[in-house]
Amino acid sequence: MFIHPTGTGPNTVVGFHGWSGDHHTFDPLLQVMPRDYRFYALDLPGCGQSEWPRKWEMRSLAKEVAEELLRLNRRGMTLVGSCSGAVLTAFVARELIQMKKADRVSRLVMIDPFAFCPWYFRLFLIPVLGPLMYATAFANPVGRGITNLFLRGKRAGETHLTRDFAGVNHRVVWKYLKMLSECGQPSQFRGLDLVVDILYGEKTFSAVRRSVQEWKEAVPQAQLTKLKGVGHLPIGEGTMRVAQVVFRKKPAIKT
Fold first, then answer.
1. Helix (H) or strand (E) holding 213
2. Phi, psi of 37 (to 5 degrees)
3. CB 195 within 8 A of CB 253
4. What angle, rounded to 10 degrees, do the helices at 141-150 and 129-138 form?
5. Residue 150 pLDDT more than 90?
6. DSSP label of 151
7. What are phi and psi of 91, to 5 degrees?
8. How far apart (Å, rounded) are the C-alpha atoms in residues 242 and 245?
9. CA nearest 18: which of 150, 130, 101, 114?
């Protein structure tokens, strides 16, 4: 797995990008990162410069990622996930705990997370017709432009919600969507003994807003932060406010 390290500090953050992303998702945060941090930005399996996963299944993927994080030999890591990457942080944290390596992770920061696969994404999973609809919306520049225009209410300023799809392996992106649809509900993480922060944009998808409440119900110690004026891409649209949470020295006490 390709992992891009930045910084040399004792505090450790690991970044999990979301759908269609890669390690560059976290570039805005790296520009404002304090000197006493070290940030590991991942290309998740199959994305960017990383090889494909052993199996296209969320729990298997989480185990694979957890094994890579153990090789970093860092303790008390903060796992930061954006969009669907936020779901993966919970699976990886649970995997580390089950490996008896609970000391390696201390905190999750979930940014605009989904808790389920919305109906409009499930359309892309319909046999035969689904991949055609996906290709129309994301695999060509005209479709990406129309989709981004249609989603203008879910973004801030000149943010482009579909630009990253221009350089991805669309088969991989489709498989990640399928994994999200099959990975189960947040209720499976009840009892997760970690500090959790959940940030979401005021203008984000209604499915994300519903998801935030489902995550809060499953992980009641989670601290929720709504980012005013921000859409579905808080890292780029609300960088400083996200950084204040991600690089917080003394996270909230678990309750």
1. helix 206-218
2. -120, 155
3. yes
4. 80
5. no
6. T
7. -65, -40
8. 5
9. 114
Treating both helix axes as pointing N-terminal to C-terminal, what angle do 84-98 and 170-182 enclose, rounded to 10 degrees?
60
Inter-axis angle of helices 84-98 and 58-70, to 10 degrees?
Answer: 70
CB atoms within 10 A of CB 163: 13
pTM above 0.70, yes or no: yes
Q: List pLDDT tens digits, range 132-148.
A: 999 999 888 998 898 88
Other CB atoms within a 10 A radius of the CB of residue 218 amount to: 19
Dist. CA 49–CA 37, nearest whole Å: 24
Number of residues that make up the chain: 255
Q: Hey, what amino acid is at 199?
A: L
CA distance 34 to 248: 10
82-110: average pLDDT: 97
- What are the angstrom distances between the C-alpha of 133 and each of 6, 127, 140, 183? 38, 11, 11, 23
- Cβ atoms of 112 and 199 within 8 Å: the answer is yes
Domains of the chain: 3-115+184-246 (3.40.50.1820)
**From edge to edge, which strands make up the β-sheet containing 11-16?**
3-6, 37-42, 11-16, 77-82, 105-111, 195-201, 223-227
H or E element: which one contains 77? Answer: strand 77-82
The residue type at 31 = Q
Q: Where are the alpha helices (DSSP H) in 51-182?
A: 58-70, 84-98, 119-122, 129-138, 141-150, 170-182
**How, if at all, do strands 195-201 and 105-111 pair?**
parallel
Band of residue 163 on the pLDDT scale cut at 50, 70, 90 = confident
In the 8-state DSSP scheme, what is residue 206? H
